[in-house]
Amino acid sequence: MRHLTKLSERVDERLFRTLYSRSLVYNTCWEDPAVDRRALGLTREDVVLVITSAGCNALDYALLGPRRIHAVDANPRQNALLELKLAGVRALEFDDFFRLFGEGFHPEVEALYQRRLRGELSPFAREYWDRNHAWFASQRGSFYFHGLSGLVACGFKAYLAVRPYLASCIRALFGAGSLDEQREIYAQNVAPLMWGPGMRWALSRQLTLSLLGVPRPQRREIEAEHAGGVAAYVRDSVEYVLCQLPLATNYFWRVYLNGRYTRSCCPEYLKADNFARLKAGLADCIEPHTTTVTEFLRGASEPISKFILLDHMDWMASHAPEALAEEWHEIFRHATPAARLIFRSAHRRPRYLEAVRIGGVSLMERLAFHEQIAQELSREDRVHTYAGFHICDVAA
């Protein structure tokens, strides 16, 4: 039996690596930058390292005017998306930019891409979008239904198409005018219909999780944290979002329901005034780098004062513990005194914080954690899919 379990784990790991190495995983960032802003306290003197993901949050941080933002991602397709957004900031007017990245559709994308965006891209990004810019061309579809996370959104859209009453209840939920109304619609109409055996089965499949960028090691962290397993964890997270946080400003969940943002409910970089500020020069501080965090830091020419590391260390702790230790070694070598780091995890207290030792000292001892403010901010997180949100400083 253990042999079969190990074989299953190897198959899952190979599938995850294959999907990640050949695909755009994230078409929008799945971390709340409003929470990050308060945790980081960015200033004009800061040099920031952020894992690129879809690039939305790098553009959000740029609005605060830090000296430089290094957007680092080992997946070149994620940086290709950031490059396309930066090209749009430089070359497009706001209405065209919002049609592309707000509505996920532009009827003249072919002309816009060929005449105004393509020449702004690096060779890899140019080749990638030569093949894929038609993702923005379908009036009935959306860019946000492409990429791996977009496939999951498409699957949910198809599920609602065969359950029209549930779909109408969810639309009413997202149109609610207050938290009390949200709770009432959810409890009476949505919850009884949505959490059936089919949904539990789909959420328990590793393929579904891999499409969402969740590898098996992170799944194990979720299962260790939550007695009900992945499906129950997802249900708890979704219920918190739908019943404890106002949906009127929750653009994270709305975009995957509708395939588009609205001008009143969208990331900060998609607001007209902020777009103008990015275009006037604030976006120029962003530098994409296609490499690992470790390799970037080894070649870095300046110290880093703020690190936004997302949740990638959950995977490394299981499959590349030596590489994780090397990454932390480089972080400490290149961090400014009292540099601040934020990262997320599927576990409230990930085991690698004790297991990884730098110079014989655990990460728990090398870092000064701000647990109370992290817990407070976590409750306000509009995504709310991570059990652990961690804010810490390099200890003196």
What structural class do the secondary elements suggest? Answer: alpha/beta
Distance between the first and last residues' Cα: 49 Å
Q: What is the CATH homology-level superfamily of the largest domain?
A: Vaccinia Virus protein VP39
Largest sheet features:
7 strands, mixed
State the helix count. 22
Annotated CATH architecture of the largest domain:
3-Layer(aba) Sandwich
Can you characterise this structure?
It is a single chain. The chain starts with a helix and ends with a strand. The chain has 2 domains: 2-82 and 277-394, Vaccinia Virus protein VP39 (Rossmann fold, 3-Layer(aba) Sandwich); 145-258, no CATH class. The strands form 2 sheets. The protein has a 7-stranded mixed β-sheet, sandwiched between helices. It has a two-stranded antiparallel sheet with strand order 6-7. It has helices spanning 2-22, 33-40, 56-62, 76-91, 94-101, 109-117, 123-132, 147-161, 164-174, 179-194, 197-204, 206-211, 216-225, 229-244, 251-258, 272-279, 293-298, 312-319, 321-334, 352-355, 363-366, 371-380, and strands at residues 47-51, 68-73, 286-290, 304-308, 335-345, 357-358, 361-362, 367-369, 388-394. Helix 10 (179-194) packs antiparallel against helix 14. The model is unreliable at 1-5 (pLDDT under 50). The radius of gyration is 21 Å and the shape is globular. The protein has 396 residues and is an alpha/beta fold. The protein contains 22 helices and 9 strands.
